[in-house]
Write a structure and sequence with these properties.
Elements (H helix, E strand, L loop, with lengths): L19 H7 L1 H15 L9 H20 L2 H4 L3 H23 L6 H6 L6 H27 L6 H31 L3 H14 L8 H6 L2 H8 L2 H13 L14 H26 L3 H4 L1
Helix pairs in contact: 2-7, 3-5, 3-7, 5-7, 5-8, 5-9, 5-12, 8-12, 8-13, 12-13
Amino acid sequence: MTVAPVRADGGLRAPGGDGGLRQTLRNKYLLRLLVRRELRARYKGSLLGLGWSYVRPAVHFGVYFYVIGVFLGMDDRIENFPIYLFAGMVLINLFTETLHSTTRSVTGNAALVRKVFLPRELFPAASVLVSLVHFLPGFAILLGGAVATGWRPAPEALGAALFGFTIIVVLGFGLGLLCAAVNVFFRDLEQVVDISVIVITWSVPMIYPWTHVREHAPGWVLDVYLANPLVSAVSLFQRAFWLPGAGGGFAFPPHLYLSAGAALAASVLVSIAGHAAFSRMQARFAQEL
């Protein structure tokens, strides 16, 4: 009696072999659980809970406004300086929190990575969504302040805001994927990211106008400064929410929308490279953790 050979089921595939990001999008339930778990862990035992998402940006803004705006006189040089400052601050806080939390997303879930197979991209993706949850209260405050100073919805303003927001999210997620993967092998990266947050805050026209760089730095420094995608994103957000309530006489960086298009393209490339690196290294995550 001849036994027919057993054929491999063509429907079977290696775990994660059909693309981690696609699996992440398909596992919306798991993604919601991770987001809820991270929020509960962060605010466990807290009286205010998510209310800290309002307190933190308010205190952050108050310190910068009184030190830079009042004591150093920037409030006299830039009309509606509080809106100018907060428009940049709310966006940069989104980027820095995304980078900070995604870097620790895999190592912070080491027990799950070792014991359960999940698309590893779920952890950075959940961190990005948590950062977006924290972004909403600050954005609501910005919107209220902008309306109070004369801002009204307009297609160009809304388009600029969406443009800047997209740059921040795409770039933050791409760098976060790369940092999350590298951090599994070299934990010093967490300290590097913490230090970089300080540099990022001062590397964009948020506390000062970009013209200060043009007036006080060599030409090549200005070129490098304007090539920073974060500069374009912050300028677009200020164009959206600060400029309508301010008078004329302020010039944004030259060719702002062209530079923003290049910034978005660079952010997409960083995201692709970050995902490629994450995909290559994730096979060793459980072993290293």
